[in-house]
Amino acid sequence: MLISRKMEKMVGGNTAIRQMFEEGLRMARKYGAENVYDFSLGNPNVPAPPAVNESIRRLVDTVDSVQLHGYMPNAGYPAVRAAVAESLNRRFGTDYGADNIVMSVGAASAMNAVLKTILDPDDEVITFRPFFVDYNNYVENYSGKLVLAETDEKFLPDMEKLEKLYSPRTKAVLINNPNNPTGVIYPAEVIQALADSMRRAQERFGTQIMLISDEPYRELAYDGLEVPYVTHFYDNAVVCYSYSKSLSLPGERIGYVAVPKSVYRWEDIVSGIIISSRVLGMINAPSLMQHVILECLDTDISQNVAVYDKHRQLLYRILTENGFEAVYPQGAFYMWIKAPIEESAFVELCKKHRILVVIGKAFYGEGYVRAAYCVSEDCIRNSAPSWKAVAEELGLKKKEA
């Protein structure tokens, strides 16, 4: 067999989101895109801020081509890394320098570089259900084992159950804040409790355990809520970030890893991340986009957040008025909807009415489905009759005004 057993497993278990997205394209050709309500993929509908496009045009027109598109140190341009560090210091009271930042090909490559740096075969990484579908594959890439921790009824980490999951092989705890798929933000008291728990585990086993915080949705927080900055709570914490959501640049793949000096052997960790990026074939973060980030670090994205907030409220109202139960998101741009029937059957029923959502099992969150509301307002508004039809077919009781 030409394909590896590891890849065969990944191919078989990691297709739900993409399959639904491709199904949406097929249905759009058949029924017309305006008649299909595709909530499957977290692809921002809000355009990149004007400053981004203006920066790209200016750079292409005025900067020497060799400088603009050439190699640079594998960690990224020193000026870009210094600017990212200074921005984080202003915003979060950190003490970063350029040496604490490694530019990356988005947050996914950042996490892969970190995991390759720290994992030996059979080492364990703990994460909380439900979680982003690819975490399991990221850990298995380096022969590690993903250990699944439970959340409570509010989808916050269950600390009592977490305590039983640590072992001498625990190398990291991986969190996503705000969370995809639930839209929940882990508040400061939860991060503090998690940090305390991890410190106890380090003392118990005489090991070092890294807290990896995946934060592409950091700026997408609503109702005045703030996302705690994890390095203030725990020494061995790193932050993996992407500009995919904040600047609507998912296809450009640009982000960074922040490694504070409080991390055990931080210089070796940074060196490992840089080398991992090279041997994984990423070499360096995209040159042009590094220049763009340098110019657009302080871009105001409040208008983007306001659009997602409006979409959040609109979709939640449509759902709840028709008798559906959903988690009201605190951040990101996903609605976590409780399936009134077996979730696969619910997904198929929604599809019958030209609504596309992703099965919760893809996120290890059984009994729910995920709807991405980073779509047009028209898509959400026009989907209301279809949601109503689904509710009526299920016999759900419409919420009284």
Secondary-structure map:
Blueprint: H1 5-13, H2 16-31, E1 37-38, H3 50-62, H4 65-69, H5 78-92, E2 101-104, H6 106-118, E3 124-128, H7 135-140, E4 145-149, H8 159-162, E5 170-176, H9 188-205, E6 210-214, E7 237-242, E8 255-258, H10 266-279, H11 287-296, H12 302-321, E9 326-327, E10 334-338, H13 343-352, E11 355-356, E12 358-359, E13 368-372, H14 377-382, H15 384-394
Parallel strand pairs: 1-11, 3-4, 3-5, 5-6, 6-7
Antiparallel strand pairs: 2-8, 7-8, 9-10, 10-13, 12-13
Extract low-pLDDT stretches. Answer: none
Classified by CATH, the class of the largest domain is Alpha Beta
Estimated helix fraction? 40-55%
Structurally, the number of domains stands at: 2
- What is the element string, with H for helices and E for strands? HHEHHHEHEHEHEHEEEHHHEEHEEEHH
Backbone structural class: alpha/beta
Please give a quick description of this structure.
The chain has helices at residues 5-13, 16-31, 50-62, 65-69, 78-92, 106-118, 135-140, 159-162, 188-205, 266-279, 287-296, 302-321, 343-352, 377-382, 384-394; strands spanning 37-38, 101-104, 124-128, 145-149, 170-176, 210-214, 237-242, 255-258, 326-327, 334-338, 355-356, 358-359, 368-372. The chain is α/β, with parallel strands linked by helices and 401 residues long.
